[in-house]
Amino acid sequence: MSKNNQSPHQSPFEEIKRTDPDTGAEFWSSRDFYKVLGYTSYQYFEPVIKKAKLACLNSGHKIEDHFMESHDMIEIGKGGKRQVETVLMSRYACYLAIQNADPKKEIVAQGQTYFAVQTRIQEIQEAELEDDRRLHLRDEIRHHNTQLADTARNAGVVEPIDYAIFQNHGYMGLYNGLKMADIHKHKGLRPSQKILDHMGSAELAANYFRATQAEEKLRRDGVKGKAAANATHFTVGREVRETIKKLGGTMPEDLPVADSIKKIEAKRKKRLPGEEQLDGEKGLPLEKE
Question: CA-to-CA distance for 176 and 241, rounded, in angstroms?
Fold first, then answer.
């Protein structure tokens, strides 16, 4: 874990930023932080950290995601060193700490501006990354839903009503018995809004896995008959749900509703003139709602 090289033009908070060489994650040591803020003793800064942790909790974030207890070695004179407790703080944790520091200190005002701006930049970058993930996964689901529809047809799921039942079995397995209409109601979506268009990347990934594995199992096992196909789709959905549960993830029905992906597509289309907007509706009976 290393500190950035100092520069006379850098913010003092940028100069004490550290980077984990294994993950590339940036963080700040509370032992460096209190000195930059001009506190004469670390004990005077500890109440600031406690307030910041409480603010983190109240804002709906996990404290351990932003404040990690650790240890530092400090010099105690005559070449000796002593191990002391420290807190490794994320950028968001630093933002909360600076908001709870002594406002009479000029450096605190500078820090509030620095971390407010940097936190906003990080939020924008993360939002862009989430948009990219959603667009990619949504496009992949469009493609694999077509394959799933073809494979289900070969298994005997031919008529539209039969396919709607087959589709619901996959959702029921993944969403703990909820059918498509139930999911709409549970998430507060209008009937005209497509479920997949309002999923975040985590939920899209779960449904992508369900679709690909259902198609693979139908084909690999040579499933024949509507009842067998429905049971297979339900089982795959349930297994994906169990995997999420074992990993400690949020169940798909409890994940937040995202803005329509159509907005992202429209925004990207404006940004890149001439780029065709994705057509997600042609030939995809699985997505008819």
Answer: 8
- The secondary structure element, H or E, covering residue 9 is none
Pick the more confident residue, 279 or 214. Answer: 214
pLDDT digits (tens, 9 = 90+) for 33-45: 999 998 999 999 9
Domain that holds residue 277: 128-287
How far is residue 257's CA from residue 71's CA, in Å, rounded to a whole number?
40
Contact at 8 Å (CB) between 137 and 200?
no
146 and 196 assigned to the same domain: yes
Average pLDDT across the chain, whole number: 86
pLDDT (tens digit, 9 = 90+) per residue, 131-155? 999 999 999 998 888 999 999 999 9
1-5, 49-53, 72-76, 166-170: lowest mean pLDDT where?
A: 1-5
Residues 6+ apart with CB under 8 A from 2: 18, 19, 21
Pair 249, 175 in one domain: yes
Give the count of domains, the chain.
2
186/75 same-domain check = no
Q: Which residue, among 142, 183, 81, has the nearest Cα to 285 in the 3D structure?
A: 142
